[in-house]
Structures
1.
Amino acid sequence: MGESSESGKQGFFDRPFVFLIAVSLAAGLACYLVMGEVVFGQVLYSEGRLLIDVIPRIAAATLLAGFLQAMVSRDMVTKWIGTESGWRGLFIGTVAGVVMPGGPITTFPLVVAFYGAGADMGALVAFLVSWSILGFNRVIVWELPFLGQDFVFVRLAASLLLPIAAGLIARQLPPLERPSDPGKG
Amino acid sequence: MEDFDSDILLPITGLISSSAILWILVALAAIFAWSRRDGAHIRGFQIACGHTWRILPRVPVAILAAGFIAAMLPDEITGIWLGTESGIVGIILASVVGAFVPSGPIVAFPIVIALDRAGAGMPQLIAFLTAWEVYALHRILIWELPLMSPGFVYRRLAGAAIVPPLAGIFSALITGAPLY
């Protein structure tokens, strides 16, 4: 579990959270002073309603993402993107990015290791771009609860082919020297 | 299709039905994980608890902050620069601004909600969100540069540069929003 939820290991009141609380308090105070009591109250009411809508959906979404993450093995993804190139590589990189579980700590070193082992840069870039814009974890946990299914549908439909385009562009750039030992960076 | 993005965030009926769909998917995934007999259902539950512990206290704070900021944002200005009518100019502007959001999803998603309330259009919001996802300035600095080499990061960024504006343009084509 430790490897899959690296972000869950931080303390409850870490610095970003304290910063967020400070921003929220400052914005609330500014809103009260600038816009007045009525607008302040309206914001509290409408955000409260939004929370009541969103919290159960986030609970469902994190459960769904957790089960999916527990079932997708990293070895499976690894096998796919480690070797393929050409159009097939771009396509497989995109699909692998969608199902890749885990955060940046596991994903970035994996990509470097693949490149060292001979994987195609275009497929790896397609994989990384797909992982960041189509990755199921973020879509399920964040996008669906906050933005709704219409938004998610349009965005995914519009983005489906873009990792492939990114991989094609990356292939046009001069090749990067392959690290013989990924551990040395 | 005309009013597709007029109020994408709070159609209550849509929320309830998609909530039901989500819970059905949760049940299916749980059953499937359990039927594997390898403890995947327990691991999945533990992963979810770890995420929930981190997300749940932060979401109300972030939503409130976004709500207060959205209330103070002048609607006309957001509407002119990022509204549906802003077309491709708004999409490109959103792609640039979104790339510089220096934080994780807990802050980024309430910002998108705030922009929506202030009158931004769906293609512009999609370009904004995609730019944040692809560039994620904080992720580049904290993880990507240290864990990969600069040459790698450069190739990824160069390949990804067209992605946010294209996502916005394709979204406009799908929803029938004007491009210019």
2.
Amino acid sequence: MSTAAVTDKRPSTLRGASLPKWSPWAIAAGSVAVAAGLGLVAGLHSKVQWGLIAALLFVAGTYGIAARVEGRRQAKDRVATSLVWVAFLLAVVPLVSLVWTTVARGVKVLDVYFLTHSMGIVADSEPGGGIYHAIIGSLEQVGLATAIGAPIGVLTAIYLVEYGRGRLAQAVTFFVDVMTGIPSIVAGLFILSLMLIFHMQPFGFAGSLALAILMMPVVVRSTEEMLKLVPNELREASLALGVPKWRTILKVVLPTSIGGITTGIMLAVARITGETAPVLLLVFGNPFINNNPFEGAQASLPLYIFQQYSAGNDAAFDRAWAASLTLIAFVMILNLVARGIARWKAPKTGR
Amino acid sequence: MDISTKQTDAPPPAPQPALTERKRDARGASRPGDRIFLGLSRGSGILLLVIMAAIAVFLTYRASLAISKDHGNFLTTFEWNTNLTPPVFGIAVLAFGTVVSSIVAMAIAVPVAVAIALFLTHYAPRRLSGPIAYVIDLLAAVPSIVYGLWGALVLVPHMQGLYGWLDDYLGWTGLFSWDGGAPRAMLTVGILLAIMILPIITNVSREVFRQVPRMHEEAALALGATRWEVVRMSVLPFGRSGVISASMLGLGRALGETMAVATVLSPSYDIQASLLDPGGGTFAQNIASKFGEATDQGRDALIASGLVLFVITLLVNGAARAIIARRKEYSGANA
């Protein structure tokens, strides 16, 4: 196929004429040149418009040339191919820009001082200050949320896979699915409604509760998938030796799937670490260091980013970007480690 | 499993009907350890149900407190003045803004996401598609506040050109007329939401496309189909329900997204006919921006609007799950 470099319309014996391999590049170069020419002549200033004209010319040119040489169906195929590539490149631009901007602008003020100081004596409009209080708050809130959410999630998954039959299990499965889709702000409002009833002021643990609600369904789903991968022969072998079911689960099923379960929990932790909305409602933010999650307002990394953004001056923006970089780095490291564990301890599926 | 558990019973039980036998096994044998463990795990399952019920009950309770004091019509009033006595507020603007921003997001994200999924499964060089899929997986984990920060500080300034262009050429439709203000309007919000939900829709669609039976594609190829014809005739029909449910999952996220909207939109309490004029609001954004200054009464009103959001997302997600469940055997999209 690669050797068929037939440019004329003379049909070969077995296959229709086809454009040479370099033709897309040639058409692309041609359309860019024409677009640049048009842009210069018509005096269009925006480079985006040049790009759009070039893209349109490319699609039209591909279709026209391919339709003449190869036929209409091949021409459609080529247009579809280029559209798919364009869609991909189009999507890459913002995503790359997001990561690039965060890194480029985040490193500006990110240093040891930034990580080890709070905003206690720094006004939002001044440079300086740091995210120590926010890191403490985030770690405590997420840690408590994990301590609540992870065991409940894992136990629920064990119930669904090892015991669950009948109505109750069906209901749990359905509502776990539904719960996955709860917007984080609604979870926050739920805890808020409880706090309003008991006339409580914002404190860190309230945020943990909302985060735990967001975490549970994610843990249940991933743990369920992992437990289902444990081969039944293992369970049967253990039960046949007279081991009680609960010890079978604890000593055979869980150790076999522990890698996957850990991965699921870590991914869930990564997800809730970035949640802002419930923290905004329940923990409220605090420029000072507050080590006690059970009393008084606390800070948290995502909330810190939001508040620095809202402060609306360059020093605050710099801090917001640096905090974003810290947050992204934390989440990405969690993700990478989790995926690493998943690959390293993937359960042997019987074969 | 049945047999093995039966053997552990010390005195072989008298022959019983098979039905009761199985029931006993499902509950585990009657050892204390088993009973405690079953109790714990079933208890967690029940706790999840209780939490869901509690969310519905408490939100409804606080919402009813707020709505009973409301001197406007909760559904149609164009105002949000909860600190007045009596308070006047309604969700009309929020509902409109939420729907509009989500529609814009879906209109952009779904075609692009499907194209990327196709790119990864059918077009990209194999060496490239693995790492790209991995990166897209990671991007799904970027916190929404970072998208919000990027949207407000990077995307918004870059929208100026597009807004001007749309106004020049499509302004006559009314939908794209622009008064030259900062481009913190529904179109920018929709575009940012589209970027945010792109990874999740791509991931689920990719899983579905990957499960298209090889035979379908090879049959089409053997009949002389081009690659696009293969995609159109075998891949897309097979993946349709998966793509629909992926889109609804994305829609669920777009509806409930708070911080990205709160940072980008410059809100107002009226409805803008043009997508390019700043103003309007969404449920989640309104809660986040009004919360700080709200009294207890105001918080109840915000909870009432949150309840509406909760119900909407429940319906959307329920529909998505129903579609997935119907074709679960080969959708693989039950993530």
